[in-house]
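Q: Is it fine to ask for two folds in a single conversation?
A: Yes, each is treated on its own. Send the first.
Q: Here.
A: Result:
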Amino acid sequence: MCGKSCRSLCNCAMRTEANIVQKVVPINIRNEQRGVVLIVALVILLVVTLLGVAVMRGATLDLKMANNSQERHQAFNAAEAALAQAEAFLINAGITNADLQNTGGTHRFNSTCTNGYCFLGSNTGGQAACDLAPGGVIPVEPWRDSTLDVWGNNNRHRNLVSSGNLVSSGNAVNVGGTPLQAKYIIEFRCFINGDDAGALISSDLGDALFRITARGISAAGNTEVMLQSTFRMTAPH
């Protein structure tokens, strides 16, 4: 039995419940929207952060590459300067035959590379008798011989020094304000026939042959470049 008053009461209850639902639902939607916006914002922030890190890493790598290239260029220039200085030394030093035979003179070439002058062969007779492999044994090249250690022993190499456009700066030499550090050795490599067809080794008229090995070092000391050149000159008598 449901009277008029009961139906009205039921309708009122239904309307009240409907009103409550209508009020609650929009609030839930706004909260969900806020949560989605927060998630999207965090994703965007993560992407931007990753892009920033990638850009910073790329810039750091570019800087390191540029620095390495600059240091290699410095070391290369130092080695080239040392080669030129060694060649000028051979021309102007007044090397004698006694130097090449290690029997006297000021610049004696010997197996211990004293003062950077190296000769691991035998040169006791005429030019034709000069031998780079005495007894058939080829010696270890001095610039790579760890036992001889020409680069670590200050008495077995020569240092790049100030000369001409090279200006001394402490223990280094600089060109245009860039400090250059280099060490070098000069090896006597026996004799070769000269440019003149009549200048033959058999007649002791050949040219003396030298090999120069230079080791250039960058200003920061992090990079080294090794260069070699061969140099021929009229043999002393």
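Q: Second one now.
A: Result:
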Amino acid sequence: MKRIAVVLAAALVVFVGAACRSAAATLNHVGIVVPDMAKAASDFRAAGFSVGPVSSISPGVVHAPIPFADGTYFELLAASRRTPEDSDIFDAAKHGPGALFAGFQVSNINMQRSQLIARGFRMDPVEARPFGWTLSFSEPAGVMEPFFYITYHRSVAHFRQTYGKYMKHRNGATSLRAIKLGVRKPEDAGPRFALAFLTAALAVQAEGNEERIMQVEVGTSTPAMRGKTIQVDGLQILFR
């Protein structure tokens, strides 16, 4: 998770959403690792999404945003080579495309850390980034591994000004709403997600022994899309 935060420091995250009360955490973005960025961008466009420009965020990693009108977004990530800094992205991509992590936005990162520690979680120190601050669970994090918290110091207006032309999607997508994480023991993971204020993270039974993000729920303004489920580059997307 530490490396994920480093990747995000160079990425598109340049905004802060609606203020969150106390320790409430709202789903902000999902990182999707892909072996081939050009193919992934083409696949998501074919599924009705607008994909932002591809840019380099480190010597071995490129990314492309899929932004939504409410300030949430998908982030496509591809690593062209294995380096110590980018090993997690490169290694994940070797197993095929799929969602690797989810960032949750909070209004006060230091308060978040204090409340999580008070609830029994082991947390890393808060890390300052160009866009704000991040907070990760200390390793080994178990079922909490895909998650981290973020506080931005820039506005949603700045985000919309930068990526507004990519926010209109043919499938009507308007927002990220929830994620489903496949785990071996959802009856144990679910209460831990709730204890960590991750109300948009749902625990479901894993397929086999691999614990991973299995589905993302996306809001849509197109009535015909509501209730439909599609599969794009290893990611199952449910429209609501």
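Q: Anything structural to flag on that second result?
A: Two points. Confidence is low (pLDDT under 50) at residues 1-22. Residues 217 and 238 are 5 Å apart (CA to CA).
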